[in-house]
Specification:
Blueprint: E1 9-10, E2 20-23, H1 37-48, E3 53-56, H2 61-70, E4 75-78, E5 83-88, E6 91-96, H3 103-120, E7 125-126, E8 137-140, H4 149-161, E9 165-168, E10 172-176, H5 182-192, E11 204-208, H6 214-219, E12 223-225, E13 242-243, H7 248-263
Parallel strand pairs: 1-13, 2-3, 2-11, 3-4, 11-12, 12-13
Antiparallel strand pairs: 4-5, 5-6, 7-8, 8-10, 9-10
Helix pairs in contact: 1-7, 3-4
Bound molecules: magnesium ion.
């Protein structure tokens, strides 16, 4: 039986100990577009207790770089797995999900299909954070513009038709080379940075809030949705194993407190 048929349980039933928390950013770490100081403090406390936090986001490499420089996280997977930041002492280490030499050709193909999408979905445009992307790009349909979901779905179809990968988040359609995803980037980090065994995924938690988290809800046996994930419930191909009572950052804080209590 897959998780689509299984019932999602309250987060209080999640069992520890937990070795690391992989967390989505938008709609999971943020509350109304901001990371509240309380949420920041909860992540700091978790890290200090020996449970490092890894950000996993569709946001650009430029954001990932800033997150690594300015927040208490261990690592950051940006651009849906396209770019991964880790540390080597004081130095940031950046790895691409595709060979670096192939980036200009991928970018040319992405620009071509972006023009096609913008001509067929009037009002759609490249997201304002696309400038800071190194591997993927994003069409904005619900951040600084408001378009019907059907336009976002059309964009996904047009992009997939030309052999690129496309994933819809709550605000963007992210698209790029079909050679990486968030889950494989997480498994890579478990091996390389956490020195863990990806076969023992029970020791790691993933938390998210939207449709683009479905593959992570499927991949992580201890997956958690913050309460606002319910707005996508019927469309979610894979449901999280656990759900918080509170939405957004408050839900993430609820999870952090629980992880501390089961990992001491
Ligand atoms: Mg999200």
């Amino acid at each position: 039986m897959n998780r689509a048929q299984m019932s999602t349980r309250p987060v209080t039933e999640l069992r520890g100990p937990i070795k690391a928390l992989f967390s989505d950013v938008d709609g999971t770490m943020t509350s109304g577009d901001r990371i509240e100081s309380k949420t920041y403090a909860a992540l700091e406390e978790l890290g200090a207790a020996g449970i490092p936090v890894i950000m996993v986001t569709g946001r650009p490499a430029g954001f990932g770089h800033a997150f690594m420089k300015m927040t208490p996280i261990l690592a950051c997977i940006a651009e849906n797995g396209g770019v991964t930041f880790t540390r080597d002492g004081r130095k940031l280490v950046k790895q691409y999900g595709v060979p670096a030499a192939s980036l200009p050709e991928w970018r040319r193909r992405m620009n071509d299909v972006a023009i096609e999408v913008m001509s067929k979905c009037p009002g759609a445009r490249l997201s304002s954070d696309s400038k800071y992307r190194e591997v993927d790009l994003a069409i904005d349909y619900n951040e600084e513009v408001t378009l019907p979901v059907s336009d976002a779905e059309l964009a996904v179809r047009l992009i997939k038709k030309v052999g690129l990968e496309a994933v819809r988040s709550s605000v963007h359609v992210n698209f790029g080379p079909p050679m990486f995803d968030k889950l494989s980037a997480c498994l890579g980090l478990i091996r390389s940075v956490l020195k863990g065994d990806p076969k023992e995924l029970d020791a790691y938690v993933y938390v998210g809030d939207a449709l683009n988290d479905a593959p992570m809800f499927k991949g992580f046996p201890q997956s958690v949705g913050v309460a606002n994930v319910k707005q996508w419930w019927d469309e979610l191909a894979y449901k999280p194993a656990f759900i918080t009572e509170q939405p957004e950052g408050a839900g993430l804080r609820e999870l952090c407190a629980h992880l501390l209590s089961v990992s001491r």
